[in-house]
Amino acid sequence: MWPNISAAPFLLTGFPGLEAAHHWISIPFFAVYISVLLGNGTLLYLIKDDHSLHEPMYYFLAMLAGTDLMVTLTTMPTVMGVLWMNHRQMSHGACFLQAYFIHSLSIVESGVLLAMAYDRFIAIRTPLRYNSILTNSRVMKVGLGVLMRGFLSLVPPIVPLYWFPYCRSHVLSHAFCLHQDVMKLACADITFNRVYPVILVVLTFFLDALIILFSYILILKTVMGIASGEERAKALNTCVSHISCVLVFYITVIGLTFIHRFGKHAPRVIHITMSYVYFLFPPFMNPIIYSIKTKQIQRNIICLFSMHRRT
Predict the structure, then answer these.
(1) Closest to 92 measured CA to CA, from 190, 187, 13, 6
(2) Distance between CA atoms of residues 43 and 296, nearest Å
(3) pLDDT of 168 over the 90 cut
(4) Are residues 160 and 192 in contact, defined by beta-carbon separation less than 8 angstroms?
(5) In sequence order, what DSSP letters do the residues of 123-170 get, joined into one string?
(6) What angle do CA 40, 44, 45 make, to 5 degrees?
(7) Of the candidates 16, 13, 5, 3, which has an alpha carbon nearest to the alpha carbon of residue 186?
(8) Which of 142, 186, 222, 238 fits 164 for a cystine, CB–CB 3.0-4.6 Å?
């Protein structure tokens, strides 16, 4: 028993009941983590290295890849620490900081997908004015706005965690810290911490998804007005990668929400697995989607590998 239960470190949890298999479970996890790092790292390298990719669409893609990399680097150390070495203890400060980055980056990712929808909207609605509307400075401002919205909006619920007393169990239900998980362990009035995230989700994820949907309705309306069937297909094809990434992200968000809200009687392992899917599936899929669907990136990847083979 800890002398001061409030100051005792939090205990992370892997897969309850499957502790003996943690080393085996770590293999697919490590493979996915490495794939995410390589995939998103390669995208960032190609966009930086190739001047033909120095366009608004690819700048936003670089923001998406950077966000995915940060999400991965935020969760990877504690997840692999639990699975490899059963390292479960985590100090309060480190836990709150991890929760802050995890939730902030989710909002940043939603914002980047919204910015990418705006990019596609401008490219299809006003193609001749595309470069004059989405100048480099404007892209930077949009990127900065997305980052600030994500990182500032999470300050109000995270700061109170530092002064809450923790006199209940210190066992968290994942191998990383989440705000909703930590909040429940506090022996204090957590009304604000319960209400604020709900409002935040509505004003970010829900609103972003609605604006993305509305922008695609307008894009579709514009595309249907194009006389040539070939031109229509070409215009829509430039949106396929983005639509795929949007679906991957929001389907995992909706899936996780439904499991939390309505899956009270579902086995705990399903809740835990769904959380990992939410944090790992979009960063894993996004580079694959863009590598398959974007010819310029595809060409650059082939060049990159053929150069390595030659050397």
Answers:
(1) 6
(2) 11
(3) no
(4) yes
(5) HHHSGGGHHHHS-HHHHHHHHHHHHHHHHHHTHHHHHHHHHS---S--
(6) 115
(7) 5
(8) 186
> pTM here?
0.92
Give me 102's structure tokens: 């995890």
Cα angle 58, 64, 66 (rounded to 5 degrees) comes to 105
Distance CA 174, CA 279 (A): 12
Give pLDDT, residue 308. Answer: 56
Rounded to an integer, what distance in angstroms lies between the CA atom of residue 137 and that of residue 159? 33
Q: What is the 8-class DSSP label of residue 54?
A: -
What is the chain's alpha carbon radius of gyration, rounded to the nearest angstrom?
Answer: 21
CA 170 to chain centre: 27
What integer pLDDT is reported at residue 122 of this predicted model?
94
CA distance 222 to 56: 21
The structure tokens 């499957």 sit at 18
111-125: buried (b, 16+ CB within 10 Å) or exposed (e) per residue?
bbbbbbbbbbbbbbb
Question: Which backbone phi and psi does 90 adopt, to 5 degrees?
Answer: -145, 130
Residues in the chain: 311
pLDDT bucket at 225, cuts 50 / 70 / 90: confident
Q: What secondary structure letter does DSSP report for 87? A: -
Largest Cα–Cα separation, the chain: 76
